[in-house]
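Standup notes
- DV: blocked on the single-chain target, sequence here:
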Amino acid sequence: MKKIVAALASVLLATTALAQTAAPSDATKAQMKANSEKSEAQATANKKKAEAQSDADKAQASANEDKASAQANADKKAAKMEKATTPKEASDARGDAMKAQARADKKKHDAQVKADKKKHEAAQDANVAQAKADKEKVEAQNDANKKSADAKVDATKKQ
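- DV (later): unblocked, structure below
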């Protein structure tokens, strides 16, 4: 009888040990999956942030070109003033130069406003992408925690 009880106890002990080792394996797999999902989510966010920054940089470069072009045009008009040989030519050139400078200033302002808007949109896109990644990371970790808890419950039930 003692041998039967000892054999049953041994089988029960082996079953319990097997159940306990299975639980961490499932939990480990779930955590590895969560880590992978979190890494993917962050990589996607980083890519979107880089794209948004690139868009902002392009917008600023375009604005700088527009501003330089507008100023060059105004400078040409101002140069005509110096070449004037009569007071009337000088007066007309001065008027043209002032108008050209006013247009250049407006173009420069508009170009910078456009670039600033693009930068703001890029920052918002980056923030949205990061928030999405953070949410996905939390969800992945919650899934891993739930699977781990379920595995522990299953292991306890098997004991």
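- Follow-up: The chain has a mean pLDDT of 83.
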